[in-house]
UniProtKB/TrEMBL annotation:
It comes from the Eukaryota. This is GrpE protein homolog. Keywords: Chaperone, Coiled coil, Mitochondrion. GO terms for molecular function: adenyl-nucleotide exchange factor activity; protein homodimerization activity; protein-folding chaperone binding; unfolded protein binding. It comes from Actinia tenebrosa (Australian red waratah sea anemone). The keyword Chaperone applies. Residues 66-104 form a coiled coil.
């Protein structure tokens, strides 16, 4: 393009026509260069925008996947913690059960030591009853008259005494509850009688001596209990 000053100078003959043609070419080149720069900048801008959008989308996808994986891991950890707690509870219960079994075993062992001779001791009670009745049935006056009877009586008395020592050594004790309050755990009432000078509900007479083995009733005493007549 030719400026107004150029036209005036051309008309006045100051510039030759070749100069005007050169100026037109240069001006056109500048316009083309400017247009090219604008187009290049726009292209770069579009390219930049095109590159940014996929990157942001990829980051969003990665963040979503990461969050999903974290939630999945949290769920797995929660399940593992729950399973661990259940295992610990079962382990504690198992320990408690084992301790109870050990305690019961120790108790049974102790009871076996204490009451292992229970059946044997109960059988010996009949022997003790026979010896006691035998010594009580001998008349005292006959002992002085008959030396053989006296020797037999002394032998029975010593045997009865030795048997009672063995009973005491092994935790076997006699229950002779005359005058005591009737106890159904230690006594067995076989009859009732009215005794004016005794309290009602007490033992007035012992028919058969009872025995305890280490505090446990081995044989209840057979007794007669006082009861007032209505």
């Amino acid at each position: 393009m030719i400026s107004r000053s150029g036209l005036s100078k051309l008309r006045s003959g100051l510039y030759p026509p070749e100069c005007l043609l050169f100026n037109n070419i240069v001006g056109s080149s500048r316009i083309l260069v400017s247009g090219t720069r604008f187009t290049s900048a726009a292209t770069e801008s579009d390219s930049t925008n095109t590159d940014v959008n996929p990157s942001k989308t990829s980051e969003a996808v990665n963040a979503s996947e990461l969050e999903s994986k974290l939630l999945e891991k949290d769920k797995i950890i929660e399940e593992k913690d729950k399973l661990l707690k259940e295992i610990q509870d079962k382990y504690k219960r198992s320990l408690a059960e084992n301790e109870n079994v050990l305690q019961r075993g120790r108790k049974m062992t102790e009871e076996a030591k204490l009451f292992g001779i229970q059946r044997f001791s109960k059988d010996l009670l009949e022997v003790a009853d026979v010896l006691e009745k035998a010594t009580e049935s001998v008349p005292k006056e006959e002992l002085e008259k008959n030396i053989h009877l006296k020797n037999l009586f002394e032998g029975l008395t010593l045997t009865d005494l030795q048997l009672k020592k063995v009973f005491s050594k092994n935790g076997l004790e006699k229950v002779d509850p005359v005058g005591e309050k009737f106890d159904p755990h230690l006594h067995e009432a076989v009859f009732q009688l009215d005794v004016p000078d005794k309290e009602e509900g007490t033992v007035a007479l012992v028919q058969t001596i009872g025995y305890k083995l280490n505090g446990r009733t081995l044989r209840p005493a057979l007794v007669g209990v006082v009861k007032r007549k209505s």
